[in-house]
Amino acid sequence: MNLPVILIIAGAFLAFALLVILLGGPSSGKAKSRRLASVKDRHAASTEAVVAAQMRKTIQAGGSQGNSSLTELLPRREELEKRLRRTGKSWTLTQYMFASMIIFVIATGGMLIVRAPFLMAGLVGLLLSLGLPYLVVGMAIKKRVTQFNSRFPDAIDLLVRGLRSGLPVTETFQVVSQELPGAVGEEFKGVVERIRIGNTMEAALQESAEMLGTPEFQFFCITIQIQRETGGNLAETLANLSDVLRKRAQMKLKIRAMSSEAKASAYIVGALPFFVFGVVWSVNPSYLEGFFTEQRLIIAGIGGLIWMSIGAGIMAKMISFEI
Q1: Which part of the chain has CATH 1.20.81?
Q2: What CATH number is given for 149-253 in this structure?
Q3: Which of 69, 75, 165, 250 gets the most CB atoms within 10 Å of its CB?
Q4: For residue 74, what is the DSSP state?
């Protein structure tokens, strides 16, 4: 067995150990909170509190059956599970962790095959194993939220037509969940199901708003809540909200078109040093080996990365606009 294969196997065990160490053990504070919640649920008086307690128990039971004991080591397991649910896919924590370990092994082995220093290979493998899955999940969430926002005004128009025809609000939600495919239909279907098992409309909508994390759906929840408290013509209010959301989407597209040139320049300037480093390394590795062995060059390289990060952050702020 040659040296690269031995190093790849050792890297696999190292990846597993790093994940266990970095992700830590179970949080005692969260265990205390769960115990307090269970005591509170046992002494709940109202019917709504009993239903909510039963829902939490059911969700926790389903989540514990779907995950292995390795995922129990995650200190922020609930946040990561929520992030995976926001993608709209059937990804689990176990799949997420094994994907990270596989990426570490492949990236480290690939760097060692091209005769990169072991320290460089380990750092690149660690960065890719931690960053790439997180980036993929973030892109999936962004894609789903974008699809939701693009069809959400159509859903509001469908709600307006249903309300003007005399249907109640819950029935119009059911119509939207059946007529519109994709993320919009899935979210409204979840709202209808939560209302059917005993949740209030405000609580069901707020849960979807927390899951989506978009201002557009939060506007919708606030509109529904204000109308139920103060009264008024809900159809007319929702029609105005639909018009506002469409104009908001148009403004976002205009800003994206106007800032596309600046974004392209920022991407090129940010990627050019790494591209040049990779090209020089592939041609003459000995010319750049000092950045991983000599102390002065290591400090200079770290300083350059820090300054590049600061510059990238400044450029990101300059081309980022909030509406």
Answers
A1: 149-253
A2: 1.20.81
A3: 75
A4: -
